[in-house]
Amino acid sequence: MFMCKDVVENIMEYIDNELDLETLKTLEKHTGDCPECMAFVNTYKRMLEITGKLKDKPFVTPEIRNRLKILLESKIKPI
Amino acid sequence: MEIGFIKKLINVIVSNESKSSATDEELVSTYLRTGDSAAFNELISRYADKVYGFALRITRNTSDAEEVFQEVFLILTKKLDTFRGDSKFSSWLYRVTANSAYMFMRSQKKHENNLSLEGYSPYDEEGTLMGKIMYKDWSSRPDLIVFNKEAIKIIDEAINDLPESYRTVFHLRDIEGLSNDEVADVLEISVSAVKSRLHRARLFLRDKLSDYFYDWRK
After folding, report:
1. Nearest CA in chain B to A31
2. Fewest CB atoms within 10 A around its CB: which of A1, A39, B5, B101?
3. What is the ipTM of this complex?
């Protein structure tokens, strides 16, 4: 019997479209009938959208870049 | 004199344009063959934020991250010839960054208890989610609320709360967008270990966000 546990443990493959057709159908049937699992899947997807916003976060300020430049100029010999 | 200056300027612009359109591997090759600093600078421009971001994710301290960041590019000036092209340059550079960060942490005697999240799951002993998820369902909140700066800060901090072995996998896979195979290559672990750690990390972070949005509503 397909349980909430099976939705949780197959969620990565579900998101990545890697489930076989039979498991996919069973999972979607379960989530259609189980509001807890529907909420789990939806919040899981939203969480991934939020973490995606961290992708292009800038870190290196002009000061950090300048300190690197000074360091490299002081240490490297031309090859 | 003016014509000479203009010709020189055009050469610089053309050279810089060819650098920006070159692949990473072409830039490495150019630098190794000719010592062309423009090729090296282009690599720095492409990867400075990625190297610093990954170092910061491991060390969780900005001054430590900067030390690692500097060390990585210093290593590049000395050991770029050890890049053999077996993997993508980006994977190789992430591996150099991870190794440099781990060495730095060891040298500073900064040890982290690497707890396991393997038992971490939202379902109960019967395998159900009954009463655990729906009352904190925030998935239909408007984008303006879900993507607010504080929520993004909360998730960034929650990622840093993950044990190190989960944190690095999550960062490379879900923030940097590497494939499972690439993450396994960078961290020198199996693909199944990548998937397992990613799974537990995501469950942990989904819970953290649910707590945040639930508390926020109150």
Report:
1. B129
2. A1
3. 0.90
